[in-house]
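Appendix B, example 12.
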Amino acid sequence: QVQLVESGGGLVQPGGSLRLSCAASGSIFRGNAVGWYRQSPGNQQREFVAVIGSGGTINYVESVKGRFTISRDNTKNTVYLQMNSLKPEDTGVYYCTARPRLYGTAPGDYWGQGTQVTVSS
């Protein structure tokens, strides 16, 4: 049963832009924080990128502040990640997540299947 579906990844040159989307089923979108993590090549762990709470509170990892923007459309049950001024170190698989808290992960959180972002010339 697929509940989070990411799209929008691809290959882009350094300095370019991409917009990721994550469509969620209504039952797991409403009332939950939604966010993005990424797993870089060679890393086994996923890194927090950005999160937006059900009330609109937003947080970013320091390395993407000023370049990435997270937003949510509650009418479409969709969360977006606008990524500008992309750098090679932004390369990785980007995962969408939905959870009942703003910070931290826990068993039972919802995850998408991931979308590949490659920043390379």
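Residues 15 and 86 are 5 Å apart (CA to CA). Residues 26-29 form the longest helix (4 residues).
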